[in-house]
Amino acid sequence: MTVPPTRRRRLRTWAPSRDGEGLHPCLDDEPGSALVDLASNDYLGLSRHPELIAAAEDELRRSGVGAGGSRLITGSRPVHDRLETAMARWLQRDRVFLFPSGFQANLAAVMALANRHTTVLADRLIHHSLLVGVQASGAQLKRFAHNDLDALHRQLQACHSQRPDAPLVVISESLFSMEGTNPDVPALAALCRKFNASLLLDEAHALGVLGLEGRGLGLGVEGITMVSGTFGKAFGSSGAFLACDREQADALLQTSGAFRYTTALAPPLAAAALAALDLLKDHPGWGSDLVQQSNRWRDRFEAEGWARPAGIGPILPLLVGSDQPTLEYQQRLETAGMLTVAIRPPTVPEGTSRLRLVLHHRQRDKTLDALVNTLRHGELRQ
What we know:
By secondary structure, this protein is of the alpha/beta class. 40% of the residues lie in helices and 18% in strands. The strands form four sheets. A seven-stranded mixed β-sheet has the order 4-10-9-8-7-5-6, sandwiched between helices. It has a three-stranded antiparallel β-sheet with strand order 11-14-13, with helices on one face. A two-stranded antiparallel sheet has the order 1-2.
């Protein structure tokens, strides 16, 4: 994706912001200056939290930088087992498996649930990694309109009528990263149960923020076969996981090349993720506080004449329309000290270019005031 000249400046380091809103990226050609972060997925600001840093440093000294092998050879460390056990308990699942990346976890998840005999019905806006997984599995792919459960129902009914015994898999996300939208997860799961379809729910952007105590929108919902999630967003670390029942876990362990044949998640990253989980348990209201603040920002944008950003999470896309005005808004905000990203085709459909704003825990209302005032000067929208 082409970026304007100001965005080509490489983000070099991080420094305390002058407005007290945490640590923000500094630009190479402006040493010591800071931009308010309205772009990253570090929703709770944990990537620089002292407890995560201390946990990673301790594990670094104990285990070294990398795991040195796959989990089934020499890569397993006690911290991996502790993290898997703690996450399984937190998510009320039988088992959790760790992966070095979210892309890899999603690839493994789809290939564990689907094969060439399977029909996969996927929300039209699912992440690229999930689509790659469908392709690798050899399954037949059908897409349904974004969050349209009536359309999904019709497709499930048609598939069941044509091939009553053929396996079905449905794939969706609980918080879509470019739209900020959410499906009705209980209704989605009920629909899958009705047609005996497996349901893979990607909770990467929701975990730590949405649902009871930040445990995701799928917590306690019957009919979700597998949950995928990452530690690189609200958890402030890196790596990913799959959570499932015992039977699915046994199959995954025996057959998943994406798990068996890759170097294990670096122990310091696992330790940092475990520290983040402890913080989330100690502060169960962080996610709901952020959701409430996000809704206040949505109210303000709507009052200013913008289309109200959909959804309930901290991702707030402001729809601009065409590419150039979106880029100009991005540049204007950067000049005013705020880091945002213009999202344009092919990432989103033509005519729907947008500013993807991400709200972070404890972001001050004066940032919203500055943002609105900057956007207000000289309207660029179509």
